[in-house]
Amino acid sequence: MAMPLARKVVEELAKQYGVCIRPIPFRRIDSHTGQADIVDVPCGATLEAKCPPCAKRNQQLRKAQCREGWHLAEEPANTPKPADDHQRYLVGLRADAQVWREQADQAGDSTDDLAAAIDDLDEEINSAGMRGNVLGRTTGKRSRSTRRRQDAPDLPKRKMAKTTLGRTFTGSDGKTFRPSMFVTLTLPSYGRVNNGIPTDPDRYDYAGAARDALHFSKLVDRFVQNLRRVAGFDVQYFAAVEPQKRLAPHLHMAIRGTLPRAELRQIIAATYHQVWWPPTDVIRFDGDRLPVWAEDCGYLDPDTGEMLPTWYEALNQLDQDDEAGPLHVIRFGQQHDIQSVLAGTSDADTCIRYLSKYLTKSISDDIDPDDPAQRAHVERFTEALRFEPCSPTCPNWLRYGVQPKGAKPGMAPGRCKSKAHKPEHLGYAGRRVLVSRKWSNKTLTEHKQDRRTWVLEALGLPDKPADPHRYVWRQVPNGDANVPPIAVRLLRSVHERQRWRNHMNQLQAQADGQDLSATEGRAA
Ligand SMILES: [Zn+2]
Ligand SMILES: [Zn+2]
Q1: Is 308 within 8 Å of 291 (Cβ atoms)?
Q2: Half-sphere exposure of 1 toward its Cβ, with a 13 Å CA cutoff?
Q3: pTM of the model
Q4: Do 235 and 257 form a contact (C-beta atoms < 8 A)?
Q5: Distance from the CA of 40 to the center of ligand 1, in angstroms?
Q6: Helix (H, G, I), strand (E, B) or coil at 261
Q7: Nearest bound ligand to CA 421?
Q8: pLDDT in tens, 173-227
Q9: Strand (E) or helix (H) holding 66
Q10: Which listed ligand is nearest to 390 at the C-alpha?
Q11: What is the distance in A from the centroid of ligand 1 to the CA of 294?
């Protein structure tokens, strides 16, 4: 029994080599030749469930990306690449959908299906590697009445300079400094906590904590807007959203350039976000009495048969109601931390390590399942999120008498599938790393591509950009007989990696040999 398990050793070797231990098999069909083969895609290529080697690799890439942009001394080049055929095709489709919707609208037909199709297309346009929206910068899909618009907080405003770089300072010895900032922002208190656990759970504001977590990313957006307005330049950032012990999300942000601390404090205090969603203070449908679905109409009141207002109708009602207030207003808490950091110092390194520290963890990873107090805290938090609408499409809207955006049959309050409601996300389902567009010259994909190119070059293999639409990828169903068992696939990956490693070592030895003979030549 003291002997190591062979199967475990393979996994350990794989981990040591940075090989994915939970690869996902895909069937790759070559559209030129019709040939199909099974290719393992590292689990890290998908958003969910990263194995330790993939998580570690992603973390390293993030660190490189963070380091590259923080103290940038020259404006990053941001010339977008020309669109490819697939991207053009998608935008073409989107144009058709736009016109069809307008035509349906003019004819007095329902535009719900087309609106949903347009939403899907917009998403696909983004996932096909295009930024932004085909309509350009819009302030939201509906034009709100002036009263509903977010007020700009009372803050000083500088004239905008066309730069993304911070100021430099020159010391008396002529040396140039390029200071940047590292800022930590938290949410307000919801009640007293001891080591992350509410001391009086009954009085802890779980509802407030749940709503703040759900809308946290919008507050961060507002903060950046205000920051840029006050700083007077196009401030860039690299930020990580992390859980605090009390389970509230908080934010660490590396900011390029610097601002006086007093101004930064003023911005933090003045920043807020108003959530203009329909009210949820009256529970209209609950228990067995739930809205019923009718084909061609949507959800109806089960007693009167009256159609519930659609999402857009509910928003219009809200606009017309002068008494209505926002559903929620979110602000930062009193606790924050501001540090000034110089390029290339050990402080900068510490901050970068800090920023990538939590990237491999989920919001609830630090929760000890054996600690009943922590478990109870998570349960109460999850319960507070259960009926809270997480987005316009959340089925929970039915509880408050509104049809969710894009309503479809089978929806029921309390049964939203969105990550936001799950105990491992606790309201925050957004991205964990937020990187502004002009942070560095490279996106994460380009950083990945860099490493790939480097390895391929070192191996003397061609890295010509393959036609991106040459291959069709299909996920392989579980238990497909063509997929070798995981152990066999891992052995192959380990073999492959060993081959690479040996080859790299040889190249390195050759390079060292050349260096040595060059030095010797000079000495002679
Ligand atoms: Zn993996
Ligand atoms: Zn939801």
Answers
A1: yes
A2: 0
A3: 0.75
A4: yes
A5: 10
A6: helix
A7: 2
A8: 888 888 899 999 999 999 999 988 999 999 999 999 999 999 999 999 999 999 9
A9: helix 52-70
A10: 2
A11: 44
